Amino acid sequence: MVSLNKVREFLVKWFRGPLGIGEAREVFYSIGDPRRARVKVRRVFFVQGFELLLDQVIMPRFRSVNLFIGIGAVRPEYSLAAVTGEIDLGAEHLVYDTVQYDFDCKDDPELAVSRALEFARSLRERYQVDPLVYVTGCKGARLVIPLKKPTDYEGYVLLARSLIQPYRYTQIKCSGKPLVDPSMFNDAKHPSRPPFTYNVKDDCSANRNNKGHKGFAKPIEPRFGAEDFDWSMFNPLDPGEVTVYRIEVDMPRPKLLRPRPRATRGPKKPLPRSIEELAGSEAVPPCIRNIIETMVRSGDVDHYARLALVWYLKWVGFDKEQVIGFFAKHARDYNERVTRYQVEYAYGLRGARRNWLMPSCRRMKQHDLCLGCGWDRNPVTYTYARAHVPEEIRERFFEEIKRGKKEAVTR
Ligand code: SF4
Q1: Is the CB of 379 under 6 A from ligand 1?
Q2: What's the 378 CA to ligand 1 centre distance in angstroms?
Q3: Which fold, 4-240?
């Protein structure tokens, strides 16, 4: 049985956050199920006000309260205005000291939990960080990555997208909804249920699949008690470590009528000769650099992301044996026969024997593989505009595009 005093102490530490910058945050609580609770409050508290709230409202009726704390801390210069309600809190007032993901599946919470643990393992291997994973007491798990340095909302979104991009969990549907809640990418005020609190919802307590986690949010990796908690137990992520995080995002918008992409900055250089080195090349778009980097660091990337990488490599001049060699070296689940078939298929040498094109930026966005660099055409033309790629490959690419357009018109 967790002591309420220990939980109270824990919640105050959680509110302050790993960098101690949480002097004021938005708090949301409801007494009973939030969808029909008569008492529902959402407002910004200073940490001292939050302590009073805990003592006078939350702790006395702990088992019937849903508590959520904002992921973003209010910037000190806005905290008084935010607490007194003089400003409508928005992204420009917030700063982030963690990156968080919600893995939810109403019909199969264990699937959501297993994917959260899989993602945590990948993060540990790629960045030597210690994410916390806790079940949220109903439909799945939350994964929290403490940061070494704070970031603004734009940086938060880019960082959160870059870290999860090679896995596309937002594309996996479960109970009709994405496995990872995409609202974390477009809601600066996204609130978060802290561990060691109750999930008070009618349909949660009735959820028979929710083996042993019913209604209570508790850590599962690592397992720790409220009394043991300190943010220093967790190795934080340095945002500067995430290569893609440092990309330039204010790229020129494409013109509508553009006969050929042209170099936008300086003379073109040759592309690096090894696929691994592409991850550090400015001529490679961030979506592709991130997939390569993840494959090199963790050997584990989602199937469609691998396919996009193979198509990209094909259209910038790598031959199939180099690509197979790359997967042989890095893929954790490497199988020579399967990889050879899939790469040769993507190169149009097997199966339908089509000269598959690299998916457009629009298609990459639909598959949640775009990191929003602003190019918005095709990832290979990003490279054509910045690096030397054999002329016959470029010409073939544009011919295939033209042919595809003609077929679409005549069909
Ligand atoms: S806009 Fe295109 S090139 Fe840029 S990250 Fe998105 S998919 Fe990649």
Answers
A1: yes
A2: 7
A3: Alpha-Beta Plaits (3.30.70)
Residue 376 Cα to ligand 1 middle (Å): 6
Amino acid 249: pLDDT: 40
Every domain of the chain with CATH number 3.30.70.3300 lies at 4-240
The CATH class for the domain spanning 249-410 reads mainly alpha
- Tokens, residue 10: 């824990």
For residue 1 the two structure tokens come to: 């049985």
Distance CA 257, CA 276 (A): 35
Residue in 68, 69, 62, 64 with CA at minimum distance from that of residue 37: 64
Atom of ligand 1 nearest to the CA of 378: 2
Going by alpha carbons, the residue nearest to atom 6 of ligand 1 is: 370
Q: What is the pLDDT of residues 325-352, one digit of tens each?
A: 999 999 999 999 999 999 999 999 998 8
pLDDT greater than 90 at residue 214: no
Among 190-194, 251-255, 268-272, 365-369, the least confident range: 251-255
**Ligand 1 neighbourhood includes 371 CB (under 6 angstroms):** yes
Looking at ligand 1, which atom is closest to the CA of residue 373?
4
Q: Alpha-carbon distance 309 to 145, whole Å?
A: 27
- What is the distance of C-alpha 116 from the center of its chain? 12
Nearest Cα residue to atom 3 of ligand 1: 379
Question: Which mutation among 250, 304, 358, 376 tests ligand 1's pocket best, with the greatest number of atoms within 8 A of CB?
Answer: 376
Closest residue by CA, ligand 1 atom 2: 361
Tell me the β-bridge partners of 26. 44
CATH 1.10.579 positions along the chain are: 249-410
184 lines ligand 1 (CB under 6 A): no
Compute, in angstroms, the gap from residue 369 CA to the centroid of ligand 1.
8
Tokens linked to 272: 């690096």
Residues 6+ apart with CB under 8 A from 16: 22, 23, 47
Please state, in angstroms and rounded to a whole number, the distance separating the CA atoms of residues 364 and 386.
Answer: 20
> Could you tell me if 380 and 262 are in contact, meaning their C-beta atoms sit under 8 angstroms apart?
no
Q: Is 370 in the pocket of ligand 1 (CB under 6 A)?
A: yes
As a whole number of angstroms, the distance between CA 199 and CA 137 comes to 6
